[in-house]
Automatic annotation (TrEMBL):
Catalytic function, reaction form: 7,8-dihydroneopterin = 6-hydroxymethyl-7,8-dihydropterin + glycolaldehyde
Lineage: Bacteria, Bacillati, Bacillota, Bacilli, Bacillales
Superkingdom to which the source organism belongs: Bacteria
UniProt similarity note: Belongs to the DHNA family.
Function: Catalyzes the conversion of 7,8-dihydroneopterin to 6-hydroxymethyl-7,8-dihydropterin.
EC number of this enzyme: 4.1.2.25
Name under which the protein is recorded: 7,8-dihydroneopterin aldolase
Amino acid sequence: MDKISLNQMAFYGFHGLFPEENKLGQRFVVDVDLFVDLKRAGKTDHMDDSIHYGQVYDNVKKIVEGKSRNLIEAVAEDIAHQLLVEFQLLQACTVKVIKPDPPIPGHYQSVSVEIYRERE
């Protein structure tokens, strides 16, 4: 299966278990891999035969910057569900939601959740 990737999309959202996270917000970074047959698009050179990644970005942005969720697992699930509903050519997707600055003590680069969902 062919793949379109959108990497390191950065947003500001209000997700987390702690009240401070819901009030102050924080950065979130999202990576998305879209699994789709791109053979036709490669031959026709028509956007209708592929997935418009600008529209993918807009869908992800609405979710990450939208309704507050307790878990980044829920954010990832919302993104995967919306992409599968919105783009009929999409066969499957991987969604990685990265929380660069979680409010937990220690030394680390980030925490993240990655999910894979297929069209049923």
